[in-house]
Amino acid sequence: MTLNTSYAVRLWHRPLMVMVAAMAALIVVASVGLLVDGRQLMEQSIWAKPLKFGMSFVIYGATLAWMLPRLRKARRTMWTLGTAFAVAGLIDVGFIAVQAARGTYSHFNTETDPFNAIGQLIFSAGVVGLFATNLLIAVMLLFQRAGNAALTWALRAGIGVAVLGMALASFITASTSANGPRTVKDAYGDPVSLVGGHGVGVPDGGGMPLTNWSTVGGDLRVPHFIGLHSVQVFVLTVLILTALATRISLLRHERVRAQLTGVVILGYTGLFAITAWQALRGQALIHPDAATWTALAVTIFVTTLLAALTITAGRRRGDAAPAESTARDRIAVR
């Protein structure tokens, strides 16, 4: 089996690729800012958040840009949804970048100056747009195939778990806003009123390097991140299994690859659920208690067992297919 990667990037969803290009430019700007701009928010460079969001949207946006043209049903609707996501992404991350350049906060900022007040309304609308477009794409994926069984389920489950990860963003605001407003300082030392945060039981700030995830309490950004990028993990799994099929005859059978992909989906979704549960209990990612360790161990054991059973069952059925019979089953990255 060979992996067909002949599909040109020029055929990917163009509005999404424009967004990806803009995010890539933001990564460059933010990287330079990290080096030359000493301003900080909560002990972190003002450019750290734009950099993280730029990287995340490059990965996610490129995945959508590649995926949407592959779909055969409701292509115009899917194109429109992709365009809506691109616009919403540019608005949201653009606001984050502008607020960073201003030396102030993009999230949870309740200051009443005109720029921030209007910007927060647009920002909130963009968040809703990102969630709604992904939810609609996830629903529509249930009614069509995007390739072979393994890739189809990888995309369906990936977008579905990503929607759950995005839904946590709404829960972050709803749950942490109940704690009332707090006053912090912007990059110039001026007071800024914030309502809400990412932490559960602890205020934001002073977290892990790069991610800034809390080291002392729960942080809903952890499952948010894991859920958001599930589709890349699942598609990468399919690509790896397909590449390994050139050497491992058992993997040349579509059913085996689909089942192993399903095992990875189950295990990764379990990880997402565990980190969400851990965060909601006010527990830092790097300080799991016995209950968290137990849940993680059970997830690993079940995932490993299912993978072993899948391989064993495939061998018993004689699923190892000759290499020449799998040409029609290639993954065309298009």
Ordered list of secondary-structure elements with their pairings:
Layout (H helix, E strand, L loop, with lengths): L13 H23 L3 E2 L2 E2 L2 H20 L7 H27 L12 H28 L7 H28 L4 E5 L5 E5 L3 E2 L17 E2 L1 H8 L1 H15 L9 H27 L9 H28 L17
Antiparallel strand pairs: 1-2, 3-4, 5-6
Structural features, described:
The structure is a single chain. This protein has 334 residues and is mostly helical. Helices cover 61% and strands 5% of the residues. The chain has nine helices and six strands, in the order αββααααββββαααα. Strands 1-2 form a two-stranded antiparallel sheet. Strand 1 (40-41) and strand 2 (44-45) form a beta hairpin. Helix 6 packs antiparallel against helix 8. The longest helix is centred in the middle third of the chain and has 28 residues, at 114-141. The model is unreliable at 1-6 and 323-329 (pLDDT under 50).
Cα shape? globular
Order of helices and strands: HEEHHHHEEEEHHHH
Low-confidence runs: 1-6, 323-329
| Rg, Cα atoms, Å | 22 Å
Percent of residues in helical segments?
55-70%
Helix segment tally: 9
| Adjacency order of strands in the biggest sheet | 1-2
Number of strands: 6
Structure characteristics:
334 residues, mainly alpha, two-stranded antiparallel ribbon, two-stranded antiparallel sheet, 9 helices, globular, disordered N terminus
